[in-house]
Every structure is written in C-alpha cells, then in structure tokens.
Amino acid sequence: MKHGQISSKELTDFIRERSTIEEAYARSMTKLAKSAGNFSQLGTFAPVWDVFKSSTEKLASCHLELVRKLQELIKEVQKYVDEQAKAHKKTKEEVASTLEAVQNIQTISQALQKSKEIYNAKTVEQERLRKEGATQRDVDKAGVKAKKATETYKSYVEKYATAKSEFEQKMAETAQKFQDIEESHILHMKEIIQSYSQSVDETHIQIGEVHNEFVRNMENTSVESLIQKLSESKGTGKERPGPIEFEECNAAVATEGKLCHTVKDTASRENSFYSSSDSEDEDEPRKFHVEIKPVQPNNGTHQNRATIDELKASIGNIILSPSTSVRLYLLKETNPPQNAANHSRTIQAQTCCLCCSLVRPFSPPKTSNASPPPTAPLARAESSSSLSSNASVSASNTPTVGTSRGPSPVTLASQDALPIAVAFTESVNAYFKGADPTKCIVKITGDMTLSFPMGIIKVFTTNPSPAVLTFKLKNTSKLEQILPNQQLLYSDPSQSDSNSKDFWFNMQALTSYLRKASDQNPSASYYNVDILKYQVLSNGIHSTPLNLAVYWKCSPSTTDLRVDYRYNPESMASPGPISNVQILVPVDGGVANMQSLPTGIWNSEQNKFLWKLNDISEKSDNEGAGSLRAKFELSSGPSTPTTLAVQFMSEGSTLSGVDMELQGTGYRLSLSKKRFATGRYMADC
After folding, report:
1. What is the pLDDT of residue 216?
2. Are 490 and 445 contained in the same domain?
3. Closest by Cα among 628, 620, 624 to 601
4. Total tally of structural domains belonging to the chain
5. Same domain, 448 and 505
6. Can you give the residue ranges of the MHD domain (predicted)?
7. Who has the most CB within 10 Å: 33, 237, 364, 463?
C-alpha cells in the first residue's frame, strides 16, 4: 500500500512537470509570435509574417489548453491520493487483528519449541535415572517433572493448532483485502493515464489542424497576390498625369505686375488639395487664378529684408520627401511682418506649385551638434547568464538597447554595482574496509568558480581603473589547504582570523583573462573563472555523507551479497538529500541466475550488478539507513569478493560549509550555487 501512495504522488509530479514544460513552451511560442509581428512590414514578403504570427499564436493556444487540462488532471490525481490515504488508514485498522494473530502464532511457536525441548529433556532424565538404578524416590521425582513437561507440551500443541487456524483465516482475509486495494489502485491509475493520453492526443490533433491550416494559407499565398497587396497599399494611384497646355504670356498684363495663367487640372476633384462647391461644372477643366501683388516701394528696404528673413525662418527647417510624380496644388501663404509697428502690410503669394507623391508629414529638424545620450543604465538581474552590454545610438540620436544572448536583455554601466556569481563544487573520495569505521579513508577537495557576465568586459576595458574586486572566504577553519589562482588573486599571508581569509583581484590580469575568453567564445553570455582550490579537513567515516559496510558469503554454487548503508547528516554543513545514488559491484563465477532486494540490474556482458536508489535523506525510511541484498547462482563458482563503487550528488549544500562574502563597493553577488558529488567512493568486504 505504501508503494501505491508513492506511485500516485510520483505520477502527480510527472504530470505537473509535463504541465510546466508545456506552459514554458507556450510562452516561448507566444513570444515568437510577437516577434513575427515586429518583423519588417515593408516589401512583398510582409503579409507572410501575418500568416506566421497567426499560426504561432494558435500553436501557443493549443499548448496552453493542454496545460489547463493537465492542471485539472492534477487536481483529480491529488483527490485520489487523499482518498487513497484514507482508505489505507482504514485498512490498517481493519487488519489489526491479523497482526495480533501473526504475533500470537509467533509467540506460541516459540513457547511450543521451548516446551518440547523441556519435555524431551525431562523424559530422557527420567529414563536415565531408571537405567542407572537410582533410588525410587529420585525416579518418582523425575517422573513427576516429566509428566508436567508432557502436559505443558501437549497444551502448547493444542494452542498452536488453534492459533494456526486463526492465523490462516486472518491472513487469507487480509491478503484478499490487499489484493482488492491493489487492483482498484491499478485500475484508477490506468484511468488517470488514459485521461492524460487523451488530453495529449487531442492537443496533437489540434496542432495538426493548425499546421494544415498554415500549409493551406501558404499555398494560397501566391506571388501574384503578394505583389498585388504591395501595389494596393503602397501605390500612388491608377490614373496617369494629364497633359498641360502651353499658354502665351500677355505682355501688357505682365508690365503692370499682373500675370494670369489658365492651367488645366487633370486630377480628379476628390484628390485635389481643396475644392470649391460653387465653381464650374464637373465635366469642365478646373481653372485657378494666380495673382502676385508687388511690395510697395515706400515700405522701406529694412522691412522688406525682415519679411524675407521671416519667410526663410518659416520654411528653413522643412525637409520634403523626394518625389517622382507630380500633382497640382494651390499654395496660399499669408505672413504679416512682426516688426512693423506703424505699417500694416500683407504679402499674398498665389502661385502654382508642383509636388506629390502623397502628402507626408515633415521630418523633425536635424541638428549637427547634438551629442549622443549617456549609456543606458544597468537593468539589474539576479542571473549572471542574462547580461549584455550591447548598446548603440541611432541616426535620430535615440539610444537602442541591444538584447542579450541570455534569458533577459540588460546593459551594464560603469556606475552600477556589477553582478557576479559564485559556485562551490566539492568532491568526496572515500574507501570503506569492512565494517570497521577506523579503517575508512576520506579525502574531500573543492573548487571555487566565479562567473562574470558578458557585459562586464566592456565596463572593464572602457574604465582605466575599475573598482578592485575583493572578497572574504568564510569558514576557512574547516579547510586543510587553500590554493588560490596566483595569476589573478592576491592575499595577505599575515591575516590572523583563522575562520576567514581575504582575497583581492589583479584587475589588469582579470580584464586580460576575460577579454581573451571573449575573443575565443564571443557568443557566450557569461565566462567562468577558476578562482581557487581547497582541501577539507576530514574526520574519517564521520565526514562521509553515506556510510557503507559490505558483506560477501561465497560458496561454489552461490554468492550472497549484503550492503548496509546509513545517511550521515552530520557530515554536511546544511543537510540535504543525496540524489542519483548508484551502487555498482562486479561479480564473477559465472552468474546463471540472481535475485535482489531492492531490484537491481544485472549486466551479463560486463558481469556487473547495479542498484539505483531514490533520494536518501533524514526523511527516508529509518532516517536514511537500510540494507541491499542480492543472491547469485553460479555455474563456475566460487566468486571472488570485489570492490564496490558508489556514486551520488547533492545540490544546495557543501560538506565544508565554506562561503564567500563580497567586500567594498562596485559589485554585488547575484547568484551562489553549492553542490558536492562523489569522486572515488569505494567499499571492500
């Protein structure tokens, strides 16, 4: 029943993990769809991005729908887990009498065996006295004892018969209950898996439909249709420019300062710059009267100059887009002078102006002496893999922040606290000899690595004197030896604190190292630097996370193997579970058959046996202690006891407890990772 509860919880974890993966994939697809919508909308290919965007959004919706279904399924599984626990509790109460029957028959069996031994002894004693000619009194006395022993023995035989009958009845009933529970459990688990499979299958069908729709849309998107869409959206019109007739100039009118044109407007009335409802018939060509009134001479040269300057100022910053086709417009501008206090004058210019492509808004004024903006400030992130320093200035003097190669885009500026990450990785090597703890040999080593984001290189190279990176190594009293990277680190050997040690970087050497690493791998989001190595003080078997003792029993036909293990939280600075536990042992002698508890894997080609265990911690059965057993049937025995090898790892903690603390300003610790794993971890019998 316990394994049934475990399998139910593991199935819940599996479905939850699948849901998480689907949700992450859906978010990525949504992000991809948005990026497709931001791609260039110019050119004939632009409409294709709409097809991509729509299809990708639908795919994201399919996966989000699967997430919703899996979340509902998780609720159902969790409900079953709760009901299963209640049913198991009830069953335990119901089979309590079976446990009493088991204990009863065990007690009676022991008492029966003991009474039988006493009976045999008393009977033999009585017979011996009779044969040796002892006194009648001694013989009678021995007879009384033998009779009493006989009665006791017979009573236990009868009790055993009663206990045996009750035991068999209770065990049969209990076994049937257990079988019913397991059958119900398996059926329920199969129903859950069927719901899971159906949800995934429905999603696959939806994805197939979306893909088929995408294929159809692409097939229907012909070259002609794409070009037609571009023509309709970007074209300048379907009508060609009409002819303009030449009109002779009237010299008499020109002498008087008046010039008249008669100009045919071939543009349609609805496309004209402005229209008049009281003019000619629609079928007649439109006519425009152009009149230029010269400036009166008595206004003075200075006011004429001012008016011209004002006109220049009013159009000086206007930048017109180039044009390849023309359309007829009438431009009328009235510009009263602003420095004529005693005179009121209006210049009215009515002229024919040829322009346009379509009317476009004016570009903003450009200034040649504008300075680029300061570097964008650092967008703080807690992951060293999400940093970038790409920044550029566009033609319009607006900063464009580049995206990083890591998960999120940021830039680094020299005035910000620069993020770095640290990782401590330790390796535990151990050799166990039999069950004697004093013979255990242990060696623990560690590595400290710093991780620098890509953007920090630019800050270092552009700053002639970057802030010195200083840190304190803590809990060093547990270290036997420290070997810093002498090319990059400095330290003061006269430091008196036995539990910590200060280090600071050679910033020039660090900058050179990071620049070289960037040249070798320019696409990396961050760069790892090995800072120092150390060896941890060990206390024999007390420093091992997993204590081992191995026992072999070898005969010509069989080999029995037992491995005792015990989780040792005292060896860790912060106890956590050890995972990926694997135990490998070679067995020779021609293994023909084998069985083990728990079940393992036999490799007949390599003659090796492997156990794979779940995570081991204080929360495990017996607080992480247990035994592994295996029996091998041999064809050419006996076996020779061999060395057993073990591997495991643990995330989030170290054995030494060593830690790092940044000193000074200019830097911040964005991430700290700790782990340990086995090196050579072996045991002999």
Report:
1. 87
2. yes
3. 628
4. 3
5. yes
6. 417-685
7. 33
Domain assignment present for residue 388? The answer is no
356 within a domain of the structure (yes/no): no
Which residues, in sequence order, are bridge partners of residue 582?
A: 612, 647
Whether residues 536 and 555 fall in one domain: no
The span from the first CA to the last CA of the chain, in angstroms, equals 35
Residue 323 CA to chain centroid, in angstroms?
A: 53
When pLDDT is cut at 50, 70 and 90, the band that residue 250 belongs to is: low
User: Residue 644: which of 561, 537, 535 has the closest Cα?
Assistant: 561
pLDDT of residue 319: 37
Q: Is the pTM of this model over 0.70?
A: no
Position with higher pLDDT, 256 vs 133: 133
Q: Token pair of 532, please?
A: 């120092």
Identify whether the C-beta of residue 51 lies closer than 8 Å to the C-beta of residue 13.
Answer: no
What is the sign, positive or negative, of the torsion defined by CA atoms of 536, 539, 540, 546?
Answer: negative
Higher-confidence position of 242 and 597: 597
Name which of 633, 553, 641, 565 is nearest 595 in CA terms: 633
CA distances (Å), origin 532, targets 213, 422, 520, 660, 678: 58, 12, 23, 12, 20
Q: Are 649 and 677 in contact (CB under 8 A)?
A: yes
Final residue in a domain of this structure, among 540, 557, 579: 540
The answer to whether the beta carbons of residues 335 and 314 sit under 8 Å apart is yes
Q: What are the tens digits of pLDDT across the range 105-134?
A: 999 999 999 999 999 999 998 888 888 888
Residues 94 and 23 in one domain: yes
Q: Measure the CA–CA gap between 567 and 618, rounded to whole angstroms.
A: 7
Structural domain ending residue among the three candidates 540, 569, 586: 540
Specify the CATH number for the domain of residue 583. 2.60.40.1170
Within this chain, do residues 556 and 495 fall inside the same structural domain, yes or no? Answer: no
374-427: per-residue pLDDT in tens?
Answer: 322 222 333 333 323 332 222 233 322 243 333 333 455 545 789 999 999 999
From the list 289, 156, 206, the residue with the least C-alpha distance to 22 is 206
Q: Contact 303/340 with Cβ under 8 angstroms?
A: yes
Q: Are residues 549 and 536 part of one domain?
A: no
Question: What is the C-alpha separation between 314 and 325, in angstroms, rounded?
Answer: 26
- Same domain? 482 vs 564: no
pLDDT in tens, 510-537: 999 999 999 999 889 999 999 999 999 9
Pairing of strands 418-433, 667-684: parallel
Residue 426's domain spans which residues? 421-431+440-540
